[in-house]
Structures are given as structure tokens and as C-alpha cells.
Design a protein that fits this description.
The protein is an all-alpha fold. The protein has two helices and no strands.
Length: 61
Amino acid sequence: MTVVDYVGAIVPPLVMAVGFTFLIRAIVRSQGGAQKAKEDAYADALAATAATPAAGPGTAE
């Protein structure tokens, strides 16, 4: 095997590893920040809405 074969074999995994690293970094950096409280409040309101049973026609109170 020549050096070119070794380089050709190692480049795709290295490119994928670098891309994966940047993806994880972007995900971690997008957590929190200025919008965190707003997003948490929205998620809490959505969870509270989903937890309460809907009163509609035909429901006994």
C-alpha cells in the first residue's frame, strides 16, 4: 500500500469526526442563553395545558 492509500482511507473518518464535533458544539452552544426563560415558560405552559383534561360537550363535571 502506498501513502496515498493510507491518506485516502483516513480522510473520510476525519472529516466526519470534525463535522460531528462542530454539530455537537452547535447543539451545546444553542442551549440556554437569552431565550432560555422564555422557552422554559412556553414548555411549562404547554405541559400544563396537556395535563389538564379538556371540558367539552358530554363531559360530566
